[in-house]
């Protein structure tokens, strides 16, 4: 039963990633997909994947390696890297002024 649920979550996760790949994180759909991915990852007890909150780019390798080059090349006009980095790291960055994404399964 538990395994079935995990499989189901994996399926949701891979669908969310597909959407994110196709639309990027800037669209409404992409933002929902990013929110689902983060929440499901947390639910599965995985480390959060490092995904650019502005465009949905997935950083490979260890952690946020390459974020500064990526940010400076693509989003420096939105916010300077020195300003954006502490927010991104804390998960508090708001893409282009939109509200942050709360965890779907957070209990408050
Ligand atoms: Zn980006």
Number of helices: 4
Tell the overall outline.
elongated
Task: Tell me the span between the first and last alpha carbons.
Answer: 27 Å
Give average pLDDT, whole number. Answer: 86
Strand content: under 5%
The major pleated sheet works out as: none
> How many domains, as an integer?
2
User: What class would the helix/strand composition place it in?
Assistant: mainly alpha
How would you explain this protein's 3D organization?
With 108 residues, this protein is mainly α. The protein folds into 2 domains: 1-49; 50-97, no CATH class. The protein is built from 4 helices and no strands. α1 (2-23) packs antiparallel against α2. The longest helix is centred in the N-terminal third of the chain and has 22 residues, at 2-23. The chain is elongated. Zinc ion binds at residues 52, 54-55, 57, 70, 74-75.
Short description:
The protein is mostly helical. It has helices at residues 2-23, 28-43, 67-74, 81-89.
Show the helix and strand layout:
Elements lengths: L1 H22 L4 H16 L23 H8 L6 H9 L19
The chain binds zinc ion (ZN).
Descriptive keywords:
single chain; mainly alpha; 0% strand; binds zinc ion
